[in-house]
């Protein structure tokens, strides 16, 4: 009771208009494809629909969303257009109307039955239900007129104003201001009186407006109730193609309930449109809007003449006829179709309203019209004549024209091409287009403009299915009777003498058939007795053809269960392939003889089955060759202990299989040719033999059986006679068996799924008996031609140690473990979002860490947390997100250095990239062009022995062909666009479904299932091999670097290498090389660490020159340079030659050199100058002594400054840095170029290490 008020989880889709209207689909939670594809959940034969037009998602809570997949015009939901699917899914409300292609459909929660109950059938005869004719009397609610504006006179306002003006004049003339006071007093009194009048008027007007609004609302409510009642009445009165199909398929109690004495008996709906509001003439004071979205009716009563033209004319005619066929029985309405194209009306041939006494159909040409009318002589109902040949209406002497001469008798539906004119005898006309709308003229004599409506046509396949639902029904009030020379139906029980064999009888049969039982089964009854089929005698291969509803599936079931009852599983096995969804062999799949079942739902199983069949043929050939036997009977005669059962491969609807697998037909012919002596038999069944029966198929299928076919050419092609095209449509199971070139047998096949008195069908009973008999034999189950399919989930404990998964190898009929090592080279994995690509990379990385001593680095472009467990492993150097620019740059440069030195002794590096395409897009920016180039070089030139790349992509188009060519392995997971796998060598049919861990190995053409991660990665034990060195970490450079943590600098041959800080790119100590006679300039603004950097440089120089002289020129006190002795330029000039000297000048831009001594010292080369200043001031100081220092082009430039700062040292600096500017982050510039460096700070509170030692 708790969920009684919750909305239902299931949805119902009703196709109300379009080229293939009438269908009703019910579906529950999950993904459902809407489109033209046959396997779509919501499908219709609408040419404007794409095969996969949209996806309708129903969540666990029953909420539905719609996502457009196809291009073209957007889907309209309740009149609002979707933006081509670009805005993402659209949530659907219950009762939403969708305009898709040229169709109009409605989505509702739950499912409302189209019929109140089921019609009662008695021995196939329809017992009509009583029907009350709907009545409705229109009533119009009168809307009152709105209240008028009323009396809005100004009252005393104007006189008061005039009095004020007069008093002002008097006061001015008489020079007495008192007159103004008297005037104002009178004005105040007048204005107050006028305001009181206005307030009273406003109150009266508001009350009048409120009363009017109540009256208007009451009238609107009454009108709305009347319109709801009118809509319900109209829906009861006018049938639609939706109700017609629902009544036909569900055998609803509305079936044939309308009689000719009902006023609405022959109404039918053309489509949807606006219906005028039926107002009473004496009360119609003004026009009323029409009622939208109603069924537009046409009355096909006697004397009506309807012309339908345009591309959808035939579909509209089918819809009208199907509505009549469900509303009225054959006793009230008979239909005759006069046409020169009978195949165009094949979907309606089996309607009881068209069936003639000789079981033929009233789909005839002009010459047969007289014969049909003669056979229907005495029929007191109405005759509806349909023709698609307008010439017959133009010839005055034609039989059709004479039949329609009486304008009060019979009804006519003329189906015309687009360019044809409407015949003058037609009183109504509908002109269809390729679009969703049509022009409807209810009366051709009226000059009014045509009405635009949405047509509701009926597709051929829907018409065929509905006709099949009505086939065989009998109108007990119809005086016409059916005649036949053969039983119309034959049960499997009757074929076997009234009783099916039980388990003991089957065991007895198996014991008496010998060591080589024939694959034989009773299938039906001819005039002269029972008919059986023996694949050895009549085959070894067979071809069965029959259109929808002809009984082909029943025949296949009868064949399979009959053969199974005559041979035990060790002698006979079956592989059942059903490309109609799997329903054909549902019950037969339980047979112990069945070793494999394939349906069209298994998209990737067809190729596997074909390869396995070829492997099975090779196995059988080897077995016969080993025993020296020419064929299977010889093997069984020479060595009865060898178990090699006959294998019968039954394929239902192999035409669909061939259309999806174009190479399958040729492969099947190869199986047939080689399997003749190996005990392999093929039974091919199809509804559409045209185009799929090649000469090779015809030459290898001796057994030919044709049930009812639509085309005489197909019948000749299959059975060698056209008789199958003329079999009665009302008798399913009638077949023609070809025994020889000129010998044919027509017989009635047995049906086995129709329930008798018990709960189980004959098929279920016989299958149960065979299963019980096999259980009593206690024999092992037969071995199939292929291994069981790969599991959907694979735990690590289910595979050998060190294996990544299992590989399905149908060519060898085995399942083998999947192993992969880094020595095999690069690996590229393609998989859409949600396909498990990230999990696969995690598994591969963990496998590498667990089985090798390689170092692993992860570049994560998706930002997931699945790799976090790897980071704790000692040989996982880093897990880096693509947004961490600093670490990304350091990683890529380290990998480039390792790739450029393949002879190095350090362990191999395995680079795991999750989202290679995303990473390339993220780095494809002017600020990261260096990193992009490095990544590109790694992908195209990296030595796999030094750096092995394992990358995953969502879109292969974003990966260069050069890298794909260098990948030794290419794995394909599920792709939303299967054609995207072509770049990796995977055909669209080989792309795995949306199943986690299922992967296609493109390099070897096999499918594998990867293990799902077992224990979390951070809980897995790392290798404890002491010889396996840990991977160097890649961390960010800290904002503060202590000088003592740096590698020491060096001084050699006059070159001083100063350890200044940590290189941001490499993470190592960076040295600034200062040659003899050169100087260093530190450039930076306030609070950039300029003075601290200068102090650190001085400390580093002092450690390398302990005997050198150090002095400072500073204008500011309290800084890190306070510990340095002040410099005396006069003493500096007296220093002996050969002693190193360092002069430090802070705020150099503020230090003047009036006497030129600083410039002379810098130019002399005896003293090394370390100067620091602000960049703007230095650029503006023309002729300044720092120009000599700048000529050395050595120094530090603070990051984050102006683009022109590098010009001070003759270097163009990058505009952006991997990390945000901060104190101490500087570009170190020397002969090696600019290097972004975090400059260290000296140790201690003050720069005491600057003092001489």
TrEMBL record:
Membrane spanning residue stretches: 154-173, 179-197
Gene Ontology molecular function: ATP binding; DNA binding
Keywords: ATP-binding, Membrane, Nucleotide-binding, Transmembrane, Transmembrane helix
Full protein name: Unannotated protein
Domain FtsK: 528-716
Organism encoding this protein: freshwater metagenome
One protein family per Pfam: FtsK_SpoIIIE
InterPro entries named among the record's database cross-references: AAA+_ATPase, FtsK/SpoIIIE/SftA, FtsK_dom, P-loop_NTPase, SMAD_FHA_dom_sf
Keyword Cytoplasm found: no
């Amino acid at each position: 009771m708790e969920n009684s008020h919750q909305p239902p989880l299931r949805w119902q889709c009703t196709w109300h208009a379009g080229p293939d209207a009438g269908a009703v689909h019910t579906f529950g939670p999950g993904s459902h494809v809407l489109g033209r594809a046959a396997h779509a959940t919501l499908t219709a034969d609408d040419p404007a629909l794409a095969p996969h037009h949209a996806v309708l998602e129903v969540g666990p809570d029953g909420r539905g969303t719609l996502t457009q997949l196809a291009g073209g015009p957007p889907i309209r939901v309740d009149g609002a257009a979707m933006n081509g699917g670009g805005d993402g899914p659209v949530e659907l409300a219950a009762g939403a109307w969708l305009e898709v292609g040229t169709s109009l459909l409605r989505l509702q929660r739950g499912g409302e039955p189209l019929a109140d109950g089921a019609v009662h059938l008695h021995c196939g005869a329809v017992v009509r239900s009583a029907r009350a004719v709907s009545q409705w009397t229109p009533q119009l609610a009168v809307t009152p007129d709105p209240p008028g504006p009323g009396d809005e006179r100004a009252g005393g306002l104007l006189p008061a104003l005039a009095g004020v003006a007069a008093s002002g004049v008097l006061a001015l003339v008489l020079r007495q201001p008192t007159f103004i006071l008297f005037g104002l007093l009178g004005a105040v009194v007048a204005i107050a009186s006028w305001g009181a009048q206005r307030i009273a008027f406003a109150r009266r007007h508001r009350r009048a407006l409120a009363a009017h609004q109540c009256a208007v609302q009451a009238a609107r409510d009454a009108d709305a109730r009347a319109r709801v009642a009118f809509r319900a009445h109209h829906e009861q009165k006018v049938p639609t193609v939706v109700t017609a199909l629902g009544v036909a398929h569900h055998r609803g109690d509305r079936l044939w309930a309308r009689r000719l004495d009902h006023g609405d008996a022959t109404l039918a709906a053309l489509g949807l449109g606006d219906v005028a509001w039926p107002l009473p003439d004496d009360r119609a004071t003004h026009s009323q809007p029409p009622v939208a979205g109603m069924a537009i009716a046409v009355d096909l009563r006697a004397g009506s003449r309807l012309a339908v033209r345009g591309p959808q004319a035939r579909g509209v005619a089918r819809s009208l006829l199907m509505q009549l066929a469900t509303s009225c029985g054959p006793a009230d309405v008979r239909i005759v179709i006069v046409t020169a194209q009978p195949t165009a009306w094949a979907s309606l041939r089996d309607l009881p309203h068209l069936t003639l006494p000789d079981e033929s159909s009233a789909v005839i040409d002009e010459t047969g019209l007289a014969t049909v009318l003669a056979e229907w002589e005495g029929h007191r109902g109405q005759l509806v004549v349909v023709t698609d040949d307008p010439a017959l209406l133009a010839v005055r002497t034609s039989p059709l024209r004479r039949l329609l001469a009486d304008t009060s008798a019979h009804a006519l539906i003329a189906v015309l091409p687009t360019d044809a004119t409407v015949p003058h005898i037609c009183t109504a006309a509908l002109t269809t287009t390729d679009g969703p709308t049509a022009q409807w003229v209810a009366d051709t004599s009226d000059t009014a403009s045509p009405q635009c409506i949405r047509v509701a046509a009926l597709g051929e396949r829907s018409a065929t299915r509905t006709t099949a639902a009505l086939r065989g029904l009998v109108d007990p009030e119809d005086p016409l009777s059916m005649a036949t020379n053969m039983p119309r139906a034959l049960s499997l029980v009757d074929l076997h003498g009234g009783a099916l064999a039980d388990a003991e009888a089957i065991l007895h049969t198996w014991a008496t058939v010998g060591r080589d039982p024939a694959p034989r089964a009773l299938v039906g009854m001819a005039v002269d007795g029972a008919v059986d089929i023996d694949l050895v005698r009549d085959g070894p291969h067979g071809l069965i053809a029959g259109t929808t509803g002809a009984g082909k599936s029943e025949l296949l079931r009868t064949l399979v269960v009959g053969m199974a009852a005559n041979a035990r599983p060790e002698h006979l096995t079956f592989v059942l392939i059903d490309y109609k969804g799997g329903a054909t062999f549902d019950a037969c799949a339980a047979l112990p003889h069945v070793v494999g079942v394939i349906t069209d739902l298994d998209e990737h199983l067809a190729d596997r089955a074909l390869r396995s069949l070829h492997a099975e043929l090779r196995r059988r050939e080897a077995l016969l060759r080993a025993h020296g036997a020419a064929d299977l009977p010889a093997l069984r005669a020479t060595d009865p202990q060898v178990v090699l059962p006959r294998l019968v491969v039954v394929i239902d609807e192999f035409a669909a299989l061939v259309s999806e697998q174009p190479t399958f037909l040729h492969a099947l012919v190869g199986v047939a040719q080689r399997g003749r002596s190996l005990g392999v038999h093929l039974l091919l069944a199809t509804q559409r033999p045209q185009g799929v029966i090649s000469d090779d198929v015809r030459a290898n299928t001796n057994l030919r059986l044709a049930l009812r076919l639509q085309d005489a050419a197909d019948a000749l092609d299959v059975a060698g006679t056209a008789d199958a095209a003329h079999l009665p449509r009302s008798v399913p199971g009638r077949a023609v068996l070809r025994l020889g070139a000129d010998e044919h047998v027509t017989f009635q096949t047995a049906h086995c799924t129709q329930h008798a008195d018990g709960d189980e069908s004959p098929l279920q009973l016989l299958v149960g008996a065979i299963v019980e008999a096999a259980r009593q034999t206690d024999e092992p189950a037969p071995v199939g031609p292929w291994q069981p399919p790969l599991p959907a989930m694979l735990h690590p404990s289910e595979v050998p140690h060190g294996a990544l998964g299992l590989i399905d190898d149908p060519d060898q009929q085995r399942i083998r473990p999947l192993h992969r090592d880094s020595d095999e080279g690069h690996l590229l994995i393609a998989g859409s979002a949600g396909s498990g690509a990230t999990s696969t990379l995690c598994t591969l990385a963990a496998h590498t860490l667990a089985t090798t001593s390689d170092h692993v680095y992860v570049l994560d472009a998706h930002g997931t947390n699945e790799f976090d467990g790897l980071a704790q492993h000692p040989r996982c150097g880093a897990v880096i997100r693509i947004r961490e620019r600093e670490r990304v740059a350091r990683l890529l440069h380290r990998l480039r250095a390792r790739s450029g030195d393949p002879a190095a002794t350090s362990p191999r590096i395995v680079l795991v990239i999750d989202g290679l395409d995303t990473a390339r897009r993220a780095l494809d920016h002017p600020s990261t062009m260096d990193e992009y180039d490095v990544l590109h070089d790694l992908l195209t030139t990296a030595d796999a022995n030094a750096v092995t790349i394992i990358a995953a992509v969502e879109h292969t188009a974003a990966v260069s062909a050069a890298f794909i060519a260098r990948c030794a392995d290419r794995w394909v997971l599920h792709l939303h666009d299967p054609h995207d796998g072509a770049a990796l060598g995977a055909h669209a049919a080989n792309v795995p479904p949306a199943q986690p861990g299922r992967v296609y190995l493109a390099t070897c053409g096999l499918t594998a299932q990867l293990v799902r991660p077992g224990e979390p990665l951070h809980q897995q034990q790392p290798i404890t091999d002491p010889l396996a060195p840990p991977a160097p970490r890649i961390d960010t450079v800290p904002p503060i670097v202590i000088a003592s943590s740096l590698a020491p600098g060096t001084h050699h041959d006059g070159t001083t290498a100063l350890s200044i800080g940590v290189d941001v790119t490499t993470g190592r100590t960076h040295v600034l090389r200062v040659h003899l006679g050169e100087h260093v300039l530190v450039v930076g603004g306030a609070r950039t660490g300029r003075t601290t950097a200068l102090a650190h440089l001085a400390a580093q120089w002092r450690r390398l020159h302990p005997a050198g002289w150090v002095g400072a020129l500073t204008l500011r006190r309290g800084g890190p340079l306070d510990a340095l002795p002040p410099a005396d330029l006069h003493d500096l000039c007296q220093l002996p030659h050969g002693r190193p000297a360092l002069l430090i000048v802070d705020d150099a831009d503020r230090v003047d050199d009036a006497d030129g001594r600083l410039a002379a010292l810098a130019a002399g080369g005896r003293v090394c100058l370390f100067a620091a200043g602000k960049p703007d001031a230095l650029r503006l100081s023309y002729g300044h002594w720092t120009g000599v220092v700048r000529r050395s082009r050595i120094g530090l430039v603070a990051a984050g400054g102006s683009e022109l700062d590098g010009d001070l040292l003759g270097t163009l600096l990058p505009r952006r840095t991997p990390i945000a500017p901060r104190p101490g982050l500087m570009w170190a510039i020397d002969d090696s170029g600019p290097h972004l460096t975090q400059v260290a700070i000296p140790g201690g509170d003050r720069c005491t290490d600057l003092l001489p030692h």
